[in-house]
Each structure stands twice: as C-alpha cells, then as structure tokens.
Design a protein that fits this description.
Layout lengths: L1 E4 L8 H12 L6 E2 L4 E4 H18 L5 H15 L2 E4 L4 E4 L4 E2 L1 H5 L1
Length: 106
C-alpha cells in the first residue's frame, strides 16, 4: 500500500475535479481506477464530499441545491474514493488501484 497526502484540487467543474483528484494520485487518464482501492479516512471523505457539494452549489446558483447535492454527491460516492481508510489526512492506494484495461479484463 502507498500512502500519499490528500491532493488539493484547483479546477472548476465537479467532474473535472474528480479527474484531477485521481491524476494527482498518479492516474494516467486511461487506466481503469478501482475506487474501492483508493481509501480516505471516514472524516476526510465526509469533509471532501461535503466541500465538493457546497462548492458546486455556488458554481450552479440557478440549479436546485437538492439537485446539485444529489448530482455531485453521487458522482463522488460512485466514482470517488472509498471511506474505509485508516490514516487521517492521507489517501491510501492499495495495490491494483489503477490498472491497464487489459489487466482488468484478463
């Protein structure tokens, strides 16, 4: 397992921020990411997802806050890291978190 600091995100759009999160962890943009093997401490996960939702609400003021919360929340819940890490302030990258598609289908 490799342990790295939670990356700071700088891009604007919610989907782009999730991509940036994985790229800053070392994803090449093409390999398959297994989000169950990318782990955050539960409080860090809650803080990250909560801040992404609140940020998106400000970005899309003309949209219903509930719709924004659901859209961005589900994005991070479905494609983002898991919340079963044990190291506060860090991302735990388990072996196989990022694999070439040929390795996944083999």
């Amino acid at each position: 397992m490799r342990v790295v600091p939670i990356p700071s995100l700088t891009v604007e759009l919610p989907g782009d921020r999730l991509v940036e999160f994985y790229k800053k962890l070392g994803w090449d943009g093409e390999s398959v990411v297994d989000p169950t093997k990318v782990r955050l401490y539960e409080k860090d996960w809650q803080d990250l997802v909560g801040s992404e939702v609140e940020r998106a609400k400000k970005l899309y003021p003309d949209c219903s806050p509930t719709e924004v919360s659901l859209a961005v929340g589900f994005l991070w819940v479905n494609k983002g890291p898991s919340c079963c890490g044990t190291t506060p302030g860090m991302v735990e990258l388990l072996p196989g978190w990022c694999q070439a598609e040929s390795e996944v289908t083999a």
